[in-house]
Fold this protein.
Amino acid sequence: MMAEKTNKTSLTIYYIILAVFTIFYVLPFYVTISTSFKPFEEVSISNMWKLPSKFSIEGFKAAFARLGPNLKNSFYLTIPATLISAMIGSINGFALSKLRFKYSNIVFALILFGMFIPYQSVLFPLIQFFQAIGLYGTIPALIITHVIYGIPITTLMFKNYYEEIPNELVEASSVDGANIWQSYTKILLPISMPGFVVVIIWQFTNIWNEFLFAVTITSDPTKQPITVALVNLAGSQVVQWNIQMAGALIAALPTLIVYIILGRYFVRGLLAGSVKG
Amino acid sequence: MSVQKKKARAGFFIILPSLAFIGIFVYYFIFLTIRTSTSNWNSFTSLLSGEYKFVGLRNYQRLFNDPRFQTDLWNTLFFTLFFLAGCIILGIFLANIIDKKLRGSSFFQNLFLFPMAISYVVTGTVWGWIFAPGNIPTSPQGINLLLENLGWSNLQWMWYTSTQSIGKFNLALIPVIIAATWQMSGYVMAMYLAGLRAIPEEMIEAAQVDGATGTQLFWRIKFPMLRPITLSAMIVIGHMSLKIFDLIYAMTGSGPNNVTDMPAIYMFEQMFRSNRYAIASAIAIIMLIMVAAVIIPYLYSSFRGER
């Protein structure tokens, strides 16, 4: 189906434009990938735009040696934080879309505002709080942080998702004598899979990529997630560029894989996060 | 109690814990930050003594008289302006081409969205290397080297280490804006694409029957229909831009003469390097006010629209 007639000349022009932009979007990937596969002796400024003449994984070995523990930290942090915040979002979304109460819109707006605030405005009290309860500098502290500040976005996403589901479905179950908990677990939860996929991808990506909380809540290098470790790696002058680019690739890979495999849902999450319903 | 009432009560109790957490971790913590921002806690000792002395708006006054913070505000303004313009122009332009459903257009769509999946930290590290100027003209690096290889050495310049400015606009921000646009323009494109696909087919066909050209079709039909998307994109990109931190931190830091400094970078330094908690908190609150000025009208209008 082609809504607009496209002639041959303009078709060519479109492809040329797309090709030019492709260069722009691919450029950093090209530099990163080609550099990371260069052997040590080939990494010099003068051939940074050239492909490696000899394929080598030295850079990756060295990067893994330094970032491996941080990569593990990122998984320890991201997986539970993602799952817990998705669960909370689902329950909240259910309450706000199917069990509407007086002022539920205002409550929702109050919660949603937390999504937009600069986290700098809560950072100092947050750190003091974790110091007070003895969790400062630990991965659980980061998990708690991401779960709490993830409530607005996961609630928003699930609320939008559940609003698409007819109320009658839930009402019918309560006529049949199901209590509210049963309506949720027996009716809504089983058809929530697509919603969960979108929310989990969104949260996984965001938490994995997050930096401000990561760098301020964890000061011990062995407990830092990969984003912080990557910046520290780049900050040390002696590190070779192939190690640094390999490190960047390692830090980017998990979310890139998610994006490549589940791109469709990723886009849906993006749109749910921007266009509020 | 009626079923309806019972449900409403259950709904309220389900949401209550989340509301409490947000109440403490967002609203109460913001209050604490405001309290710190009006205190004398500008050293480790004054914090440890715990003795709270209210100094009114003195920290704010100091900030607005501070040349570095003034630079930060100008940088934020120009960065936001060009970052927004870049994302919206690129987004709407690419979405319109992708929407023509050429062969392979879904490939290009995915490609342009790719950067969105990556951390700002990675983006900053990689673009930071690409734009590193090296020593020109003797040993250029990154883009400068590429320009030399292409025979365009006269286009070489200091990129994000440049201290040149046009008026209050620091040219060093240009590479940062390019990196940020690279990261987020695909997102805006996806938003516009969704908007374009929501325009009823009949509307476009009717206009075509009436003899509208492609340009007319865009400016008279599509563009007005995309206005709500433009607003959403401005809100999303705008509020991100006002609090930009990771990208700058990983790419350039504050730069020579603070040419690429931002409030978030300054706040971070004051809080974690200089232990000037009150000043840092004041910066954080100014950032919050800037973001709230954008977000609250938006939330308000979209909730009023819902009723």
